[in-house]
């Protein structure tokens, strides 16, 4: 199904969860077609309970409603620790695609990583693991509902990501569990973002979120229909809005999926634009973004069923190597350095 004239299809996952093998393959083929053409899809019938989505949305809103001085209490104590609150303009997404002179993003966000590690598993105690799996920072003193709501939401997203990765495997004519051992110890960040009202015009060239591709396997996004929203860059160079379907999630592929498939699938450029000037007030918009990122040591190299008879376009990398490179570019802003030094 297409959403009235949109380049992004809406795909019902009900049969992928409960159907026969043939029905699962049918849904997988729809996912594959979207992955190949635009790298974005909207999924309904995903099985995530609406109360879990609502609770995470409301707790996040309460968090961003706090006075700036309270939010600052939940900043990370160390620039190398990607946890907790990051203020307006601390990130610069456009610089992750090498755009020189790009302006920092007009948004604030809060990052949560995994919380359910098995201390008996040596994977979680290597030096790399210790760097990645930092303790989360929870705003319990101000928004006690945040931690339980976000943990529930994170768990639901991890389950949905597994289903989507299984569909990706089927779409690529691989065994359904082909990705399983590459994502079973994933290093996903859940980033809750708030794009405030814009009573004043921003600087020329500054956006809510600059153009970029996502860094991981795939992203699951829950956002709101507000003036100034998400746009994707089509293959012929047009920026198109992504439809907001109530209760559905937006999925987009990240760089690792493009590298795995030798660019048969696209990690599509996208951005969040500013509201039209007359609608700057009342345009506040909030997103919950689950950046599904494979196990840190997952090797990302061309999948055997892709690029048959062609040379591989990318040198092999690992999940963490690619993520580290992008995060360093993202945080290369004066405000990031200033607040982290404070
Ligand atoms: O808020 C959105 O709609 C998308 C944000 C985004 O692309 C990102 O955080 O990577
Ligand atoms: Fe993104």
UniProtKB/TrEMBL annotation:
<dbReference type="InterPro" id="IPR044861">
    <property type="entry name" value="IPNS-like_FE2OG_OXY"/>
</dbReference>
<dbReference type="Pfam" id="PF14226">
    <property type="entry name" value="DIOX_N"/>
</dbReference>
<dbReference type="InterPro" id="IPR050231">
    <property type="entry name" value="Iron_ascorbate_oxido_reductase"/>
</dbReference>
<dbReference type="Pfam" id="PF03171">
    <property type="entry name" value="2OG-FeII_Oxy"/>
</dbReference>
<keyword id="KW-0560">Oxidoreductase</keyword>
<comment type="similarity">
    <text>Belongs to the iron/ascorbate-dependent oxidoreductase family.</text>
</comment>
<dbReference type="GO" id="GO:0046872">
    <property type="term" value="F:metal ion binding"/>
</dbReference>
<comment type="pathway">
    <text>Alkene biosynthesis; ethylene biosynthesis via 2-oxoglutarate.</text>
</comment>
<dbReference type="InterPro" id="IPR026992">
    <property type="entry name" value="DIOX_N"/>
</dbReference>
<feature type="domain" description="Fe2OG dioxygenase">
    <location>
        <begin position="185"/>
        <end position="294"/>
    </location>
</feature>
<keyword id="KW-0479">Metal-binding</keyword>
<dbReference type="InterPro" id="IPR005123">
    <property type="entry name" value="Oxoglu/Fe-dep_dioxygenase_dom"/>
</dbReference>
<dbReference type="InterPro" id="IPR027443">
    <property type="entry name" value="IPNS-like_sf"/>
</dbReference>
<dbReference type="GO" id="GO:0102276">
    <property type="term" value="F:2-oxoglutarate oxygenase/decarboxylase (ethylene-forming) activity"/>
</dbReference>
<dbReference type="GO" id="GO:0009693">
    <property type="term" value="P:ethylene biosynthetic process"/>
</dbReference>
<keyword id="KW-0266">Ethylene biosynthesis</keyword>
<keyword id="KW-0408">Iron</keyword>
<protein>
    <recommendedName>
        <fullName>2-oxoglutarate-dependent ethylene/succinate-forming enzyme</fullName>
        <ecNumber>1.13.12.19</ecNumber>
        <ecNumber>1.14.20.7</ecNumber>
    </recommendedName>
</protein>
